[in-house]
Amino acid sequence: MLTVAEALDRAQMMCDAATKAGADAADALYYCNAATSVSMRLGALEDVERSEGQDIALRVFVGQRSASVSTADMDAGELAKLVERCVAMAREAPEDPYAGLAPQDRLMRGPAPDLDLDDGSEADPQALREAALAVEEAARAVAGVTNSEGGTASHSRTRFALATSHGFVGGYGSSGHSLSASVIAGEGASMQRDYGWHSAHYLGDLESAAEIGARAGTRAVARLNPGKAPVGKVPVVIDPRVGSSIVGHLLGAIAGPAIARGTSFLLGKEDSILFDSGIVIRDEPHRPRGLRSRAFDGEGLPTAARDIVTGGKITGWLLDTASAKQLGLEPTGHASRGGGASGVSASNLHLAPGSQSPTALIADIKTGVYLTELIGQGVNPVTGDYSRGASGFVIRDGEIAGPIAEFTVAGNLVDMFAALIPADDLVFRHGTNVPTLRIDGMTVASS
């Protein structure tokens, strides 16, 4: 793994070499992740994994033509050969009127803010083994748990560096810690499984093994002996651990590439009232220790906090440079980069809490469902039609009652957004965080 400084040197060298070889512009991106993971099952060591992968991707532009290449070989001589091939490829590529680097006058300037993403730790296999054993033991200690799929603890380190031929150079490193357990309750055909997990940049911010394990075991036992879900149009309440997917569908619909292609169900609805006026969905890229925090985007533009939804409306599209050009707009600092063309992504997202507790939110529901798991990918991004398999609990007379399984929930995302009501139990634990959510009028059917 290169240091950030070493990675920036190589990225800058590739950009310089590309312009010398005839490219009009270029950018180079380095990414490396080194991870150690230890898994325990039934009290015994099951697996130890150590992985380290690094990659440097070069993108060059010759007029309106572009090409991209990537390699894991950091040898300076090999990188120089790669640059020559990439420029030659670009000369033969078709023209793209939207190709190009981000506007130079919009690049991030000056030092990046310290987002406190690295605790300086190194992997300790023995400590990971002890943590994996502890989280599994906590889960297996719950009465009714009969078997285990294991407990896993992991440590990772990441390096990211970006350089462009028109003046941007930036990089950062981060550390990661995670802990999880998955266990089984019941016997035979009536067995049920569930899990608990948590991830953080700092080990000190990681939830305890006892809490994660107990949550996994308790959830598995609670799912035993599921009944049938009520059918028809009923209120649906969504647990925070799966409610973040609703925000994910919104992000896909306001992504610039989807808007430019005309493949979003929100196309033409940018001025419409889509949510209750009290709903706020916020993107916070500078949150200290945030799992998706970043000072700059994948094209070198500065990031900034933004309300994606406020006053019932979306506040605009999420744009990289290419989609912004297609739409006649300006990029918004949401570009994401892999080995080739950029896409868009948000950072730390949350849906602001409402004023009611989860108990109050369901108090008036005579018959409904409480979702704890969603299955499948049954969402049409063009129409917004939504249909997914689910499991959870029935709500009867304002209280969460017995478990239910093997049913589907369906609706249309436009209608779901309009009906969405958040509870007051928002907790910041993941990259996207939401409180308990209620959506009335969804269709529930047996699978």
Automatic annotation (TrEMBL):
Which molecular-function annotations from GO does this UniProt entry contain? metallopeptidase activity
Sequence ranges assigned to domain Metalloprotease TldD/E C-terminal in this UniProt record: 232-445
Q: What are the GO cellular component annotations?
A: cytosol
Q: Where is the Metalloprotease TldD/E central domain?
A: 121-224
Q: Which residues form the Metalloprotease TldD/E N-terminal domain?
A: 36-90
Q: Which GO terms describe its biological process?
A: proteolysis
Q: Where are the transmembrane segments?
A: none
User: What Pfam family is a match for this entry?
Assistant: PmbA_TldD_2nd
Regarding protein family, the annotation reads:
Belongs to the peptidase U62 family.
Q: What protein am I looking at?
A: Modulator protein
List the lineage, top down.
Answer: Bacteria, Pseudomonadati, Pseudomonadota, Alphaproteobacteria, Sphingomonadales
